[in-house]
Amino acid sequence: MSVSARQKLETQAAENNIVKEELDLLDSSNTVFKLIGPVLVKQDLDEAKATVAKRLEYINGEIQRYETLLKDLEKKSEHQREVLTSLQQDFQKAQGLIAGKV
């Protein structure tokens, strides 16, 4: 689930980077529109650039949060694997001792 959410965020970041690049090509004489529901609304270029920059900042922060979460989950998973391996070894030793007594 975390991996899927991170991939979705990376896709959104890529899309917003494309929008940012396109906005950087414009000057103040160009008209920018924002889609709000089914309506296109005129928007100031600087406001559009600021909105995209804030969105990218938020998305990148979320990507970092998910990366940290995934690293923590990986550490916990590795620890659980080690515990399981240890328990399996203990079980096999116990079976060997019981088999030796029979």
UniProtKB/TrEMBL annotation:
Task: Check the record and name the Pfam families matching this protein.
Answer: Prefoldin_2
Q: Can you tell me which residues the record assigns to a coiled coil?
A: 56-90
Please verify whether the record's keywords include Coiled coil: yes
Is Secreted one of the keywords UniProt gives this record? no
UniProt lists the family membership as follows: Belongs to the prefoldin subunit beta family.
What is the name of this protein? Prefoldin subunit 6
- State the source organism's domain of life: Eukaryota
Q: Identify the species of origin.
A: Goodea atripinnis
Q: Which UniProt keywords apply?
A: Chaperone, Coiled coil
